[in-house]
Amino acid sequence: MHDYGSAMTRIETERLILRPFEPQDLDAFAALNADPVVMEHFPAVMTRDETEAFMDRIAEKQARVGYAVGAVLDKADGAFLGLCGLNLFEIDLPWTPETEIGWRFTRASWGKGYASEAARAWLAYGFGTLGLSRIVAFTATANHASSKVMERIGMERAEHLDFQHTHVPPGHPLAPHIVYQMTAP
């Protein structure tokens, strides 16, 4: 497993701690990625080994780009709630590379506003600290819960950026993706 270090900024909100992944997050992160309900809008659940490899890719991107998604913890008790953060989206599309914001939370944490709270903190970091001019978010067309979060945090639909995800076979129900965006205030 990669050494995750502490290169990523630690962000605290009223209820959350946003920090780089650490080796002790692997079990909870693997459980999140193995949950078929959480992963409903992804092509497949992930094994523990796949999750560990994903954590390594996140750490490598953090080292290369200077930011990446990270762990979200409950400030009150330190419980792992999921992931949120910024990611340099680099698949081959006319509008990429572009910084995206993304999240994935445990079912037990759904409906409590954690995704919105974490995303707002990351947007502030991206625009304020990193000086980004635009941040996008996207999801499979059928993922209404995620698109509602995008709307709740003030992002606007960017239909001209909608795309067919290249990591999903053409014609697959999860291939069509809708895009939201926010520009720097």
Please, could you describe this protein's structure?
With 185 residues, the chain is an alpha+beta fold. The protein is 28% helix and 26% strand. The protein is built from 4 helices and 9 strands; from the N terminus they run ββααβββαβαβββ. The chain has helices at residues 26-34, 48-65, 114-129, 144-152, and strands spanning 11-12, 16-19, 69-74, 80-89, 98-105, 134-140, 156-157, 163-164, 176-183. It has a 5-stranded antiparallel β-sheet with strand order 1-2-3-4-5, with helices on both faces. Strands 6, 7, 8 and 9 form a 4-stranded antiparallel β-sheet that branches. Strand 3 (69-74) and strand 4 form a beta hairpin. Helix 1 packs across helix 2 (48-65). The longest helix is centred in the first third of the chain and has 18 residues, at 48-65.
What's a concise summary of this model?
The protein has 185 residues and is of the alpha+beta class.
Count of DSSP strands: 9
Biggest sheet strand line-up: 1-2-3-4-5
Q: Give the radius of gyration.
A: 15 Å
The largest pleated sheet is described as: 5 strands, antiparallel
Shape: globular
Our measurement of the CA-to-CA distance between the termini, rounded to an integer number of angstroms, reads: 38 Å
Helices and strands, in N-to-C order? EEHHEEEHEHEEE
Q: Which percent range fits the helix content?
A: 25-40%
Q: Quickly give the structural class.
A: alpha+beta
Number of continuous helical runs: 4
Assess the beta-strand content as a share of residues: 25-35%
Low-confidence stretches: 1-6
Mean pLDDT: 93
